[in-house]
Amino acid sequence: MMTVDGSAVVSGKSMLVVLCLAAGTIVGELIRIEKGFEKFGEWLKEKTGNSGDKEFVNAFVTASLTVCIGAMAIVGAIQDGIMGDYSTLAVKAVLDFIIVAVMTSSLGKGSAFSAIPVFAFEGGITLFASLISPVMTEMAIAYLSLIGSVLIFCVGVNLVWGKTIRVANMLPAILFAVIAAYLPWGF
Fold first, then answer.
1. Which domain range does residue 67 map to?
2. The pTM is what?
């Protein structure tokens, strides 16, 4: 949203952010993505023998969203799918390990299970990117990265002030960002 133009900081793409987040959140709320994450977290809690851990699901959802929706996760998976370059994902894996280790020590064991949605999310993006590589543009990747960064900010808000934003329900905004890159009018 912010770029440096000479000696001035210029803002832009605010309408893109607003429209993508609004449309994505509406879709996410309708299909209840956050509820799905929580149900999967509850299932994992039971299956792993952690039914006594009251913070397991919160730790799982928070860590999953933190490591899944960053720009490196999305752009790295796209680079892997389009160009076969997994270097960004390799660096991200090391960073994720450190982040999840810290989150596990502060939030609980549920954080460690964030590897499951990360594998599914990044793997899905990589496969999808390999299919659409002929039509993927730099603008689509830039828009996707912008919205992903806003979602990471929302995860940070939840970490600081408690769970106030249902970030998982905002995930469809990423798809709207990609679609917006192909529309004939600019944002």
1. 14-180
2. 0.74
